């Protein structure tokens, strides 16, 4: 079985239904096209060939065939590290790129969520619903270890009372997230917000460290006492919400929603006008979560009606 490793791996499975005249597989991480000979990957004991490559940005996968025709790829499985595809003649493409028929004509895609795996639903939700705000949740562990981790299934929910909502799943190994364990134990937590200056530290803290390892230490962050709850806040964060649990909803064995009541907001100097309570657009530069390792800034802001940023000046 051939394996070509170029960073985080996605998997392309080339099936027996591949047309005989298909000779190459092309893929484009960040627009740089690479082509490999299909014959290199069409052999193993179960009739599928495996091909590993770096997903990078959203990709287009094309099987080049005779007379400029195109055979498309169908997602059959996947993982956080990438996607597994199988090639079928004249098939419909599901996944990262829009579907195109073999003759080049456009085709819409309808996906029944009841027929999808949990991972496929996750990929669609995170690939379509963005940018998402990031809740950088900080807590003390039962053993006194300072914990912080980012969650993007998050948003504000109400202003009266002031509520926010967090969605928790399990670790890939089935273990409970440290943040959720600490919230269940104490009914309190802190949601720190993420801006450009803290983006890399946030990303480091997203790694799965064991409970006795502090993400604060690994990310070079400072744990500072909160004012109204027992957990720490992240000193470097532009703003944070100190919260108590308003309600917990156990959706199933692996999914839980936590609704938090916001007790206090702490903000970096100059971020909030104490009189008008307005937030400074110049001082606050949050980032948003996309999918995979992809994020976005909020630098291009504009008013409507009016031109969009790439169509003219925006204020």
Report low-confidence residues grouped into runs of 5 or more: 1-105
Widest β-sheet, arrangement of strands: 10-9-13-16-17-12-11
Which sequence of SSEs, written as H and E, runs from N to C? EEEEEEEEHEEEEHEHHEEEEEE
For the biggest sheet, the summary is: 7 strands, antiparallel
Overall shape: globular
CATH homologous superfamily of the largest domain, by name? Electron Transport, Fmn-binding Protein, Chain A
Distance between the termini: 55 Å
Strand content: 25-35%
Write down the overall mean pLDDT. 74
Query: Total domains, how many?
Result: 2
CATH topology grouping of the largest domain: Pnp Oxidase, Chain A
Give the beta-strand count. Answer: 19
Contiguous helical run count: 4
Structural class: mainly beta
CATH class of the largest domain: Mainly Beta
User: Which CATH architecture of the largest domain?
Assistant: Roll
Q: Brief description of this entry?
A:
With 315 residues, the chain is mostly beta strands.
Core attributes:
315 residues, mainly beta, Pnp Oxidase, Chain A, 2 domains, 7-stranded antiparallel β-sheet, 4-stranded mixed β-sheet, 19 strands, 10% helix, globular
